[in-house]
Automatic annotation (TrEMBL):
<feature type="domain" description="3-deoxy-D-manno-octulosonic-acid transferase N-terminal">
    <location>
        <begin position="34"/>
        <end position="212"/>
    </location>
</feature>
<keyword id="KW-1003">Cell membrane</keyword>
<dbReference type="GO" id="GO:0009245">
    <property type="term" value="P:lipid A biosynthetic process"/>
</dbReference>
<dbReference type="GO" id="GO:0005886">
    <property type="term" value="C:plasma membrane"/>
</dbReference>
<feature type="active site" description="Proton acceptor">
    <location>
        <position position="61"/>
    </location>
</feature>
<keyword id="KW-0812">Transmembrane</keyword>
<dbReference type="GO" id="GO:0009244">
    <property type="term" value="P:lipopolysaccharide core region biosynthetic process"/>
</dbReference>
<feature type="site" description="Transition state stabilizer">
    <location>
        <position position="131"/>
    </location>
</feature>
<keyword id="KW-0808">Transferase</keyword>
<dbReference type="Pfam" id="PF04413">
    <property type="entry name" value="Glycos_transf_N"/>
</dbReference>
<keyword id="KW-0328">Glycosyltransferase</keyword>
<comment type="function">
    <text>Involved in lipopolysaccharide (LPS) biosynthesis. Catalyzes the transfer of 3-deoxy-D-manno-octulosonate (Kdo) residue(s) from CMP-Kdo to lipid IV(A), the tetraacyldisaccharide-1,4'-bisphosphate precursor of lipid A.</text>
</comment>
<dbReference type="GO" id="GO:0043842">
    <property type="term" value="F:Kdo transferase activity"/>
</dbReference>
<keyword id="KW-0448">Lipopolysaccharide biosynthesis</keyword>
<dbReference type="InterPro" id="IPR039901">
    <property type="entry name" value="Kdotransferase"/>
</dbReference>
<dbReference type="InterPro" id="IPR007507">
    <property type="entry name" value="Glycos_transf_N"/>
</dbReference>
<protein>
    <recommendedName>
        <fullName>3-deoxy-D-manno-octulosonic acid transferase</fullName>
        <ecNumber>2.4.99.12</ecNumber>
    </recommendedName>
</protein>
Length: 423
């Protein structure tokens, strides 16, 4: 009954969901493209065999699961790979990472008739859902067609668990319909068990985000960017920033420049629809602003470099001395601190890190990350790091060791996938 009520409410709300897509398409036109795919209507991919279907919500999940996708393409060339995302930025990442080796579709909205159409057309042999993107009708439709579903790299914060618990009549059946869950930590697994996951379906494999291996090309591009900006200058990156964080970092940067006039800021907004407004905001703080999307080459005179492109975050990190990871002052739970850590960068984050709570806490304890509570403490910590090279190096080494010591989740996850495909 709970799912029927949910389906009724979703059906009633569908015009509003469609209107939201149209509205978002005003700033990000890609949202208006391929809309029929969200109704389960997509061109026939002409799969020669049943595909392995991987669902990743957006950019972060796509990047996290990319190493597994690469392994599957190499280990199972007889099986096509179908990837679905919810966002155009996720779609762009799939295309940039895999080109024609992977078929991309937008994930249908969660109504039974859309899923019947999608599954009948694509007939996947296995579904891998990344992290916590669970939908009642999606899982029910997979169960109806006897499609195994693996929840990979599963994470569930205490805050999210409380939200799922409020809808226990929907949550418990969804967890019962999963075939296996590969949880990032024992704490994530315990929360899923409390919500109704059967213990025999749970495997604690660790986070595959530890298995990140910075590409040599990114390191080389980052080194080249640093030469352009100026090798002797201190460089701070503010990465994956959200609304309000850009202004905060720009204010702090401006004050730091009083003591370090050569301090350069690389500012990378999280969402493409904000690129233009962030660049305009930056020009209120400096006349020496350079935008990557405009193919403008930075120089030693550049004060603020706007990273307004997609898929180049690692080379931006590689060019910096200190990394501030955004989403941590915006109430959105923070973004992945392991990316700069893997590149041996000292990491600073704000108070909102519930998306990576355990990783953040462990990285703090290991000495690779400093967590601050407000603008004043952010300025204080950045001031300390800019003025103390030995401290930066110590944090950088600790961050890198933390990543290296926790690798291995990708191997464990692939073993689970191998087992499901062998069925």
């Amino acid at each position: 009954m709970a799912r029927l009520l949910y389906t009724l409410l979703f059906t009633i709300a569908l015009p509003l969901v469609l209107a939201r897509i149209v509205w978002r398409g005003r700033k990000a036109p890609a949202y208006r493209e391929r809309v029929l795919e969200r109704f389960g209507r997509a061109p026939d991919a002409g799969f020669a065999a049943q595909p392995i279907w991987i669902h990743a919500v957006s950019v972060g999940e796509t990047l996290a699961i990319a190493p597994l996708v690469q392994r599957l393409l190499e280990a199972y060339p007889q099986y096509p790979v179908l990837m679905t995302t919810m966002t155009p930025t996720g779609a762009e990442r799939v295309k940039a990472l895999f080109g024609g080796r992977v078929v991309h579709r937008y994930c249908p909205w969660d109504l039974p008739w859309f899923w019947r159409r999608f599954l009948k057309r694509n007939d996947p042999r296995l579904c891998i859902v990344v992290e916590t993107e669970l939908w009642p009708n999606m899982l029910s439709a997979c169960l109806g067609r006897d499609i195994p579903v693996l929840l990979a790299n599963a994470r569930l914060s205490e805050r999210s668990a409380r939200g799922y618990a409020r809808f226990a009549a929907l949550t418990r059946p969804m967890l019962e319909q999963l075939t296996l869950v590969a949880a990032q930590s024992h704490a994530d697994g315990e929360r899923l068990l409390r919500l109704g996951l059967s213990e025999d379906k749970l495997r604690v494999t660790g986070s595959i985000k530890f298995d990140i291996e910075p590409e040599t090309a990114d390191k080389v591009a980052g080194a080249a960017l640093r030469v352009q900006i100026g090798e002797s200058r201190p460089v701070l990156i503010a990465a994956s920033t959200h609304e309000g964080e850009d202004d905060l970092l720009l204010r702090v940067w401006k004050r730091l420049c009083l003591d370090w006039p050569a301090l350069a800021l690389i500012l990378v907004p999280r969402h493409p629809e904000r690129f233009a407004s962030v660049a305009a905001l930056a020009r209120r703080y400096s006349d020496a602003v350079c935008c990557r999307s405009a193919a403008q080459t930075p120089t030693v005179e550049t004060e603020i470099y706007i990273g307004d492109t997609l898929g180049e975050m690692m080379q931006m990190y590689a060019a910096a001395d200190i990394a501030f990871v955004g989403g941590s002052f915006s109430g959105t739970g923070g973004h992945n601190p392991l990316e700069p850590a893997a590149l041996q960068k000292p990491v600073v984050m704000g108070p909102d890190t519930f998306n990576f709570a355990q990783i953040t806490q462990a990285l703090v304890e290991r000495g690779g990350l400093v967590q601050v509570c407000d603008e004043h403490s952010l300025e204080r910590e950045l001031r300390t790091l800019i003025g103390n090279e030995a401290r930066r190096d110590e944090m950088a080494r600790a961050a890198s060791r933390f990543v290296i010591e926790n690798r291995g989740a990708l191997d464990r996850l692939q073993q689970l996938v191998d087992g499901l495909l062998a069925r």
